């Protein structure tokens, strides 16, 4: 299936309450009457949020259009997942004392880039660095990071 088709079938649930397990989420979001959903391809719990992939984009659309989702007496917040920008990466945890040359060498070696392929934009505190690529990363490059 194409990536755009996957995006249309994916829903993100934010602020998942404690005690809600994967089986309960499957049952709730596959129940068309309660959630508007339908058959799920996958449920992936990531800390306090969940990524749901439905078999059909229509089910994801119905879930997103429903105003209230309640599980374990807690209202769930659902949204379309944010789209990833394949031209920008954020590098965190940099020592403010690390030289610009060291960072450039690191970026070039880790991503197999030339200096003309990117622009580095440091944060004011110099502990974060935005790597702006002049060409989007390919899926192969992303998976190797």
From TrEMBL:
Superkingdom in the source lineage: Eukaryota
Gene Ontology terms for molecular function: nucleic acid binding
Protein name (database record): RRM domain-containing protein
Species for this entry: Fundulus heteroclitus
Taxonomic lineage of the native organism: Eukaryota, Metazoa, Chordata, Craniata, Vertebrata
């Amino acid at each position: 299936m194409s990536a755009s088709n996957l995006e249309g079938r994916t829903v993100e649930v934010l602020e998942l309450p404690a005690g809600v397990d994967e089986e309960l989420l499957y049952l709730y979001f596959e129940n068309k009457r309660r959630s508007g959903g339908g058959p799920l391809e996958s449920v992936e719990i990531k800390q306090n949020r969940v990524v749901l992939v439905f078999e059909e984009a229509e089910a994801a659309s119905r879930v997103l259009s429903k105003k209230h989702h309640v599980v374990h007496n807690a209202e769930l917040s659902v949204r379309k997942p944010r789209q990833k920008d394949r031209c920008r990466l954020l590098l965190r945890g940099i020592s403010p004392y690390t030289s610009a040359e060291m960072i450039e060498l690191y970026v070039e070696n880790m991503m197999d880039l030339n200096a003309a392929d990117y622009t580095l934009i440091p944060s004011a505190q110099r502990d974060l660095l935005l790597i702006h690529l002049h060409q989007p990363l390919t899926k192969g490059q992303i998976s190797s990071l």
